[in-house]
Amino acid sequence: MHHANHFYGHANIMATYAGLSKPPRIWGYLQHGWNILDGFAHGTNFAPGMPKFVWSDSVRRRGHALGLRNYSVIGSVWLYLLKVHPELATPAKRAKGTIFYPFHGWEGQHVLGDHGRIVASINEHETGPVTVCLYWNEYQQPAIRKVYAGAGFRVITHGYRGLHWRKTDEKFLVKQLRELRKHERVASNRLSSAVLYGASLGLQPGVYGDPMVLENEHPSFGGQARIKRLWPELDQPYVPLAVAREFTDTELGVDHVAGPAEIREMFRWNS
Asked: What pLDDT is stored for residue 6 in this prediction?
């Protein structure tokens, strides 16, 4: 199983959905986050003939344009999580305020930008209580946490996504779902998976503030300029919910969710 299939506990969620107690090896590559290119990280070494399980048909089309094949569109793991946890189908009774996700780096690339400017943008656009959810990469840096905590925001992290089959927080997405349910709005300084997840639950989405720069970002993704060019209607502090839901349903692949038996068949879990 490719190690990225485990990110955020995705393999475990799919196994639970398929009726298994733990995930066997997935025969293929599973998209782990919203992606504006072929569905996978730049430089992913695909084994010949192995299937690529992606969220949406738009990802499949872009992959085909790049000469890639063997795509299967199955919808995002997030949608399967919602089916696995029907008890979290409705908002918390006292949902309030905004959860903000600053754009983050990872083990191989850091984010370059001014977190103080993000605080200023949040204060400009939010009126209720604010939770700032930092990725583990930034959360482990006290100086960054202090910027947000010092502004009076609640500061959390959902955990560690894992890397090379190690330290994966299998409950990462469950924690994210529980936190989103506590809020009325979701926002970020870049259009991202977290914004899509929140909008899919009916939270009012927003995208604003310094988008920051990813260290040594590969030009094939087109950067923030490409995102703004393709989806300008989503680059505003208060995105109309109807617009956000249409986009979210398409990008998360709502119409492509497979049944448990289909997943077992596609992932070669029947044996």
From this structure: 92
Write the burial class of residue 255 (CB in 10 Å: 0-12 exposed, 13-18 middle, 19+ buried): exposed
> Rounded to an integer, what distance in angstroms lies between the CA atom of residue 182 and that of residue 92?
5
Global pTM?
0.93
Q: What is the pLDDT at residue 258?
A: 98
Are residue 112 and residue 241 in the same domain, yes or no? yes
Q: Is the dihedral of CA 231, 34, 136, 202 positive or negative?
A: positive
| Percent of the chain residues topping a pLDDT of 70 | 91
Residue 158 has pLDDT above 90, yes or no: yes
Q: What total number of domains does the chain contain?
A: 2
When pLDDT is cut at 50, 70 and 90, the band that residue 11 belongs to is: very high
Q: Confidence band (pLDDT; 50, 70, 90) for 187?
A: very high
247 shares a domain with 169: yes
Output phi, psi for 99, to 5 deg.
Answer: -110, 125
Structure token digits, residue 261: 């038996």
Token look-up 């991202």 returns 192
Identify the pLDDT of residue 81: 98
Residues 132, 181, single domain; the answer is yes
